[in-house]
Amino acid sequence: MREDQLWHSSFALLRSDLKKQTKSKRLKRKLLNHSNNILEKIDLKLLSTLKNDELKKLKGRSLRFYKGKYFYQKGDFERSAKLLSKLSDRSLYYAESRLILAQIYQRDKKEKLVKKSIMSCLKGIRSFDAKSSNAKTYLEKIKNSCFLFLARNEFQKKNFDYSLRFYNLLDKRASSFVSTLL
User: Fold this and answer.
1) What global pTM score does this model have?
2) What are the distances in angstroms from CA 122 to CA 41, 71, 86, 98, 175?
């Protein structure tokens, strides 16, 4: 365990102990707000150590996206959903944020929100004006991920015809096509 991760977990334990020992509701609320701010800063520090120089260049919306993605990978789905749902539809990362939200909602068995998120993902890809070839390639990968998500989702529901339709929408020229089928 890295030193910053150890510090993070130690602080979380200390916070829970102080919260139990504090009798005043007002003091508890102040302590909780203050410690949440500190934990967020620690989480950002942990996140920056994971992504090194790339993350240090990020600002605002893209930082919110990476932080939301980090919490998703960490298993904190509530915090992840809260951050990712605030992302603007003008952001390059909007489509992927909606895909991640769909995965969170599927885990929570919220089918209407899954559909809404996936449709927003596909709409975001269509409406985003990608100027660089890197952005276009990135959005193509996200589009394939959306179709793959839909295909697997329909397959789980035993809607094989719909599943096959979504599999047929995958870009077969993409280098990741073979690995997506595995």
Assistant:
1) 0.65
2) 33, 23, 17, 9, 21
Instruction: Look at residues 56, 17, 12, 55 and name the one whose alpha carbon lies nearest to residue 36.
Output: 12
95-144 pLDDT, tens per residue?
Answer: 999 999 999 999 999 999 999 999 999 999 998 888 888 888 888 889 98
Interhelix angle 94-107/77-84, nearest 10 degrees: 150
pLDDT tens per residue across span 5-52:
444 444 454 455 545 555 566 655 655 555 555 545 545 555 545 444
157 vs 152: CA distance, rounded Å: 9
Give the whole-angstrom CA distance, residue 80 versus residue 104.
Answer: 9
